[in-house]
Amino acid sequence: MNQNSKNIKYLLLIATLSVVGFYVGSWFSKVIGNAGAGVKIESFTLMERDLHPYVFPQKDENYRVVHFWANWCPPCVEELKEVIQLASYLSEHSIRLILISTDPSWEEANKLLPIEIHPNIIALLDPQASIAKKFGTYQFPETYLVSSNGEVVKKWVGPQKWNSEDLRKQLLLK
Question: 87 with 18, same domain?
Answer without folding.
Answer: no
